[in-house]
Design brief:
The protein is an alpha+beta fold. About 40% of the residues lie in helices and about 15% in strands. This is AraC family transcriptional regulator.
């Protein structure tokens, strides 16, 4: 897997001038027409992490490789990408059309926590296949982004933030009601949110020398200053899963990424994920995937 791509990389590789907002370190937002990036002569997109958020509305046959999953798209798709999860697009049609916007977390400073929304969470729902009617409801939002960003209105970036939230909420409404997350409405959800932040803060694993420090439910309970039973009840109330399950799911997701997209040996991967013994990691991985790490590395994903 290649080194994490920055917005400066994105602009220079696409032949655009790097904006002053990136040079100064303040929050950044921009919106683009996809067609010039996904035509017959488009360069293949490497599977890696980006240091920015991205929302893409794409029409055309393609495959979305996201974390350890592949989604085949026949017509339209809306994809939410965050800096912690690697992804790429595989074009099937010669030309893809649509729009995408890119932005940094700093752009939303004091305007909300993007990672609190399921569309940007590692185990959330980032890929939405759309019907013709549904895609027609999202296109005007991107067109309004173009209109606002080119305007002279002093508060245009507030409007652009609201348009991003409009995309997020419109997408989340496409999910069945029992999959929708209620944000921070009670104490259990606040604890759940803090747990998720602590868990996610340990990723991505970018070097074999990097190691997870919080691995057990007791580690997280101690860090949060609550009893482990209290933490389990809070997570059960808010996400219907216990602490051990959520930790295991996230570790398995990261391990699949590292096994598939790095040349690290299995011992290095296991150590970086908090396993002192390679055999313990191999047994854990096989229990959750039915494959040994080495077998998984050799399996062709179609």
């Amino acid at each position: 897997m290649e080194k994490k791509k920055t917005l400066a990389n994105f602009y220079s590789e696409s032949g655009n001038q790097v904006p002053e907002s990136l040079k100064s370190g303040i929050g950044h937002f921009n919106v683009f027409v996809l067609d010039e990036f996904a035509g017959p002569k488009a360069k293949p997109m490497p599977f890696n992490r980006r240091e920015y958020f991205k929302i893409s509305l794409v029409t055309g046959k393609s495959r979305v490789h996201y974390a350890d999953k592949i989604v085949k798209v026949d017509k339209h798709v809306l994809v939410f990408s965050n800096p912690q999860i690697p992804y790429n697009w595989e074009q099937i049609d010669e030309q893809l059309t649509g729009y995408f916007c890119v932005f940094t977390e700093a752009f939303f400073h004091q305007f909300g926590n993007l990672l609190a929304y399921p569309v940007f969470q590692p185990n959330g729902y980032p890929v939405f296949e759309l019907t013709d009617d549904q895609v027609n409801s999202f296109v005007p939002v991107f067109k309004r982004m173009f209109s606002e960003i080119s305007s002279d209105y002093a508060y245009k970036y507030d409007i652009l933030r609201n348009l991003v939230f409009e995309l997020i909420h419109a997408a989340m409404k496409l999910q069945p009601a029992n999959l929708a997350s209620n944000l921070h409405s009670n104490a259990s959800e606040r604890i759940s949110s803090l747990f998720a932040e602590l868990l996610e803060r340990q990723f991505p694993i970018e070097s074999p020398n990097q190691q997870m420090q919080l691995r057990s439910p007791a580690d997280f309970a101690q860090q949060l200053g609550v009893h482990i039973n209290h933490l389990n009840r809070a997570l059960k109330d808010s996400v219907q899963k216990n602490t051990s399950t959520l930790i295991a799911e996230r570790v398995i997701q990261e391990s699949k990424i590292l096994i598939r997209h790095t040349n690290w040996n299995i011992s290095e991967i296991g150590h970086s994920l908090g396993f002192e013994e390679t055999a313990h990691f191999s047994n854990f991985f096989k229990k959750h995937t039915s494959h040994s790490p080495l077998t998984y590395r050799k399996i062709e994903i179609v």
